[in-house]
Structure formats: structure tokens, C-alpha cells
Write a structure and sequence with these properties.
The chain has 249 residues and is α+β, with helices and mostly antiparallel strands. Helix content is 43%, strand content 27%. The chain has 8 helices and 9 strands. Helix 4 crosses helix 7. The longest helix is centred in the first third of the chain and has 50 residues. It is globular, with a radius of gyration of 32 Å.
């Protein structure tokens, strides 16, 4: 009887030890797995702190780069894409105006018909007194002076100074007249843009108090859809999101 009792007790102890081992093993596995997960989460968080660029910052920078990445054969003297792709540390007055033209043209009012009262309100134009009466009834595109000036200030942090003479060759439609409230763009230039340009932002990176943006630009023939040139460019902006430079990557 004693032998049977000892044998039974031995089996019970073995089973208890086995269960304890399983519990300890599961606990160790869970703890290690939780440690790895926490370590991975911490590493991800640290990377986000180092390289994090907010949506608002990306939106403002991408808007600037978009306006600075236009190829326009109609206004061949003011092709922003080629100007920035070759690398620069400054933006000429002409390029600043061209960028603002590129930006505001996208939400301008099309197919506005000029009436006589608007001609009387024009403060600057390329038309003389005799020609002014001939543009009554002509369809034009309108950019608000307020929008044009605001884009300029947002891009460059300064108030613009310009006349119709300064902006009349920026592109097609052509700005040929302005009032205190509106800039009138005329569709008299004709022609089409044969070469097009496509700019893609690869990634943003915060480097100290500066922002670095890597882009890939493709110049292609819109008729054949053949890519003729590819550009890799690094854009640098300061902590206030003002342009610093571009350089070839």
C-alpha cells in the first residue's frame, strides 16, 4: 500500500512540475515578445520624431514645388522647371511672378465676358484708347489681384511690385490689363505646349532646422509620351518654409 501511495504521489508531483514549467515558459515567451514589441514601437516613435514632417508643412512645400516645376513652351523665357533643376540659391523677380502665375491660373475664373464698365475701371493695360472699345464682349480669364498678391506673399514672404508690363509675357492666356481688383488674361496668344513636365516628390526629411525634399522630374513629349529627360533634385527650405536652394542629386 505504501509503494502504491509513493508511486501515485510521484506521478502527481511530475504532473505539477510539468504544469509549472509550461506556465513559466509561456510567461517568459509573453514577456520577451512584449519586450520586442515595445522595443520596435519605441524605435518607430524615435524615427518619426527624427524624420516627421507634418501634413501642413508638406502641403505648403508641395504647393511651392508644384508652381516651380512647370515647363511652358509658350512662355519660353520663364520655364520654372529648368530654372530650378539646374540648381540655384536665389529666385529672380521674373521667376517669382511666373510661379505665382502658375499657381493662380489653376483656380482662375474662365470665360468671363468683358463689359464697358470694366474697361473704365482698368488702371493698367497694354491697350490704347482706340483699342479699348474693341475688347468689349471678349472672353477672358480673370485672376483676382488679391489672390495673386497673397500667393506671392505666401511663397516669398514679401509684398509684390509689378505692372502689366512685368507680367504680360508670363504665359498663355496673357495678362494684358488689370483693374484694382482683377487681372485680365487674354486668349490671343494661341499655340500649344509641346513639351510637358512631371514632378514627383519622393520624400521629405527634416534636417535640424531645415527641410530637405527629394524630387524626380520627367520632361516628356506630350505627343509621343516619350520621356526625354529625368532630373533628380534636392530642395532646401528653412524653418519658416522659405526657399533656400535647389541642387542636382
Amino acid at each position: 500500500m505504501k509503494d502504491k501511495s509513493k508511486k501515485g504521489s510521484g506521478w502527481i508531483k511530475a504532473i505539477i512540475m510539468l504544469l509549472v514549467g509550461i506556465v513559466v515558459g509561456l510567461g517568459a515567451y509573453y514577456g520577451y515578445d512584449n519586450y520586442l514589441s515595445k522595443d520596435s514601437k519605441d524605435e518607430k516613435t524615435n524615427n518619426e520624431v527624427v524624420d516627421d514632417v507634418s501634413f501642413e508643412v508638406k502641403q505648403k512645400i508641395s504647393h511651392f514645388i508644384d508652381a516651380a516645376s512647370i515647363d511652358d513652351s509658350v512662355a519660353s523665357d520663364y520655364i520654372t522647371a529648368k530654372y530650378f533643376n539646374k540648381g540655384t540659391t536665389k529666385i529672380s523677380d521674373e521667376m517669382k511672378l511666373k510661379m505665382v502665375y502658375n499657381a493662380t491660373l489653376r483656380y482662375a475664373q474662365d470665360n468671363h465676358i468683358i463689359d464697358k464698365s470694366e474697361i473704365d475701371e482698368m488702371v493698367d493695360s497694354t491697350f490704347n484708347r482706340n483699342e479699348s472699345s474693341e475688347i468689349v464682349g471678349e472672353p477672358v480669364t480673370i485672376v483676382r489681384v488679391e489672390d495673386f498678391n497673397q500667393e506671392y506673399e505666401d511663397f516669398f514672404g514679401e509684398k509684390p511690385k509689378y505692372t502689366i508690363k512685368d507680367i504680360k509675357k508670363l504665359g498663355c492666356p496673357m495678362p494684358l490689363a488689370m483693374s484694382k481688383t482683377d487681372i485680365y488674361l487674354f486668349h490671343r496668344c494661341g499655340g500649344t505646349t509641346v513639351m510637358s513636365y512631371n514632378s514627383i516628390i519622393d520624400y521629405y526629411k527634416k534636417d535640424g532646422d531645415k527641410y530637405l525634399v527629394h524630387t524626380t522630374g520627367q520632361e516628356f513629349n506630350s505627343a509621343t509620351e516619350e520621356v526625354t529627360k529625368t532630373y533628380k533634385t534636392i530642395w532646401t527650405f528653412d524653418k519658416d518654409l522659405k526657399f533656400v536652394s535647389t541642387e542636382k542629386e
